[in-house]
Amino acid sequence: MKKGEQNISGGLLFNNEYSAEPFILERVNKSSKLGKHSYQIIDFLPSIQLLEEHKKKLAFQSYLLYFYLGFMPTTCKLINIKQEVIEFNPVNEFEGVRKIINEIKKLEYTKTIPSAYINQHCKICRWKDKCLNECIKKKDLSLLFGISNVTRRILIESKINNINDMANLDNNQIKLMKDKGVRNVPFLIKQAYSYITKTPERIMYPNFPTRYPALYFDIEGQIDLNFQYLFGVYNEETIEYLPFWADEITNEKDAFFAFLKYLSKIKKYTLFHYGSYEKTAIRDLCFKYNISKKIEQSVLNSMVDIYSALKKCAAIPVPSYSLKDIAQFLGYMWHDKEALGANSIIWHNQWMKTNNLQCKERLKTYNKNDCEATAFVKNWLEESV
Ligand code: SF4
Questions:
Q1: Which atom number of ligand 1 is nearest to the Cα of residue 132?
Q2: Which residue spans within the chain are E strands per DSSP?
Q3: Is the CB of residue 129 below 6 angstroms from any atom belonging to ligand 1?
Q4: pLDDT 10s digits, 47-79
Q5: Would you say residue 233 has pLDDT above 90?
Q6: How far is residue 145's CA from residue 205's CA, in Å, rounded to a whole number?
Q7: Alpha carbon nearest to ligand 1 atom 5, residue
C-alpha cells in the first residue's frame, strides 16, 4: 500500500483485535497517512441483489482501512454477477457493524466447529476449497446444483442425509418429498447419482435449431457505465474468432453495428450463448441505437441459451452450473488461469485508465475462451454421454 500499487488483491488488513482479507484494494488519489494516495475496497457479490450483510462486510473492511489511512474511506464498490458496479458509503453502515461486533463479543465460544455446506457465499470465501472437500467427503446434499438450504433441511429432517440417500430414494420417499414441496426431485436424484458415478447423467437430448453456421457469442460489458465493449463471436464453420471491440464508450455503437453487419452478411445462422446476459444486452442496445424491430427480432430469434438447455438435459456432478465450472468439468481449459468475471472488470478498468494493450489482449483472450467454452458445452450436449 505504501508503494501506491493500483490494485492489491490477496491483502490482509488487521488491527489489534480484528483482521479481514478484502478482495481488491483499489488506489484512490486522495491523501492519507500513506502519502498522496489512499485505498478503497472492491468486492465481488455472488448474486444480483445487494443485501445488508454485503454492505456490513465492506463497512467492516473499510473500518480496518482506518488504521492504515487515518480515516475511513467514504466509498467502496461491489461488483455483482451481472458485472454491475454498486457503490456506497461504508461510513453509513458502520453503526450496524459496531452493533454486530458488540454482539460477537458477548458470545461464548464452544469448541464445536459448525459443519460446512455449500452456499452462495462459498465462491468468494477463503475457505472454499477446504469446505468443498469437506462436503465432498461427507457427500453433503448442498453439493446438488440449485438445492436451497430450506430444501436441504427438509431432506435431512426426512432422514435423507446425504447424496447416497438421495440417489437411492424409493417411490414412497419421492412422493413424500414432492408432498413436502421439494421441487425438481427427479433432477436432484439424477445429480446425486452423477456424484456417485462421477459421471454426467443424461436427462434428455437438446433440440437445437439446425441453422448453420453455429456462432458462439459472448459480450463483455461494464454495466454501471452502460457500456458493452466487446462482442465476441466464434464461428464454428470457419474456425475463426471475431472480436468486435470498442476502445471507448463513444465507439460502442460502431462495434455493435460491425457485429450486426457481420451477422447480416451470414444471413442464416444460430447464435449460441450461455445465460441470459447476451439477450438482455442485445435488446437494450437495439433500443439505445434505434435498430429496426425486424433486425432486432431476427437476431433474437437466432439466439439459443446453452445454460437453459443444459439445466434440462444433463445432471453434472458440480455444485454450480456456471460456464467456467461446467466447461472445466467437461475438459475445457481457459488459457488464462486468472480468467474470472471479477478480474475482467479489473483488467478493463486498467485498460480505460492506461490503454495498456496487454489488458486489451487479455480481455479478448478471456472472451474468446468463453465463446469456445460455450461451443464445447453445446457440442458435448449433442454427443451421447
Ligand atoms: S466456504 Fe465454508 S466457511 Fe466459506 S461460506 Fe462456504 S461453508 Fe461457509
A1: 1
A2: 7-9, 13-14, 19-20, 24-28, 38-44, 76-79, 85-88, 201-202, 214-222, 227-235, 240-245, 270-273, 303-305, 314-315
A3: no
A4: 667 778 888 999 999 999 999 999 999 999 988
A5: yes
A6: 19
A7: 122
Q: How many whole angstroms from 7 Cα to the centroid of ligand 1?
A: 25
**Grid cell of 92 as nine digits:** 453509513
This prediction's pTM: 0.76
Listed residue (160, 215, 209, 223) closest to 188, CA to CA: 160
Architecture of the CATH domain 214-382:
2-Layer Sandwich (3.30)
Tell which one of 127, 134, 135, 149 to mutate to probe ligand 1, the residue whose CB is within 8 A of the most ligand atoms: 127
Grid cell at residue 233: 463471436
Grid coordinates standing for 290? Answer: 434505434
Bin 226: left if φ > 0, else alpha if -120 < ψ < 50, else beta: left
Q: Where are the domains of the chain?
A: 7-106, 122-198, 214-382
H-run or E-run covering 84: none
